Amino acid sequence: ARMIFSAQKCGVCFQPPSIILIYRDNVQDKTRQRIMPIRNFSRFSDCSRAAEQLKNNPRHKPYLEGVSLRQLEKLYSLLRDHLEGQSLSESLGRYHHEHTIDPEEDMNKLDDKELAKRKSIMDELFEKNRKRRDDPDFVYNVEVDFPQDEHLEACAWDTESDEEM
Asked: GO CC: one term (predicted)?
């Protein structure tokens, strides 16, 4: 089944609060704009719940098929921050910080909810960077030589023999 509508761009309008979708009508072969007003949303609202409700709304569902839930959550997050008085650049900076993995962070110290959030971010990044067989730049057997210039640190578990354990 071919999609009738293909999402091109999706954004947020602060005044009046609304999600704006630029989409392609594949039947009529035209590019159109859809404005979805956001009602009953405050700075205390749950962004992920609001995004799910919009995506599952029968009036908007066919248009939002090609828009990820995460993108809608981001738009709601930007709107919520705007309602709290933050500038767009502050809000984007905070969102980027919250949705980026810090390689130095000790994930053993995170609670279950935060750990699940980090795993979700890693899964999404993996899928985005994943190479599939039908990708034009797919290579079957990639071999990489890592530089040996730097001094390699030895770990205790590297040097112990089986007898010592």
From this structure: centriole
The three-class DSSP label of residue 150 is coil
Are the CB atoms for 19 and 12 separated by under 8 Å? Answer: yes
What is the torsion angle, in degrees rounded to the nearest 10, for the CA atoms of residue 82, residue 84, residue 85 and residue 91?
A: -50
Instruction: State the Cα–Cα distance between residues 118 and 113, nearest whole angstrom.
Output: 9
**Which residues make Cβ contacts (< 8 Å) with residue 61, sequence separation at least 6?**
55
Looking at residue 159, its pLDDT comes to 61
Q: Has this prediction a pTM greater than 0.70?
A: no
Count of other CB atoms within 10 angstroms of residue 159: 8
Q: Write out residues in the chain with pLDDT < 70, as ranges.
A: 1-2, 150-165
Give the model's pLDDT for residue 161: 59
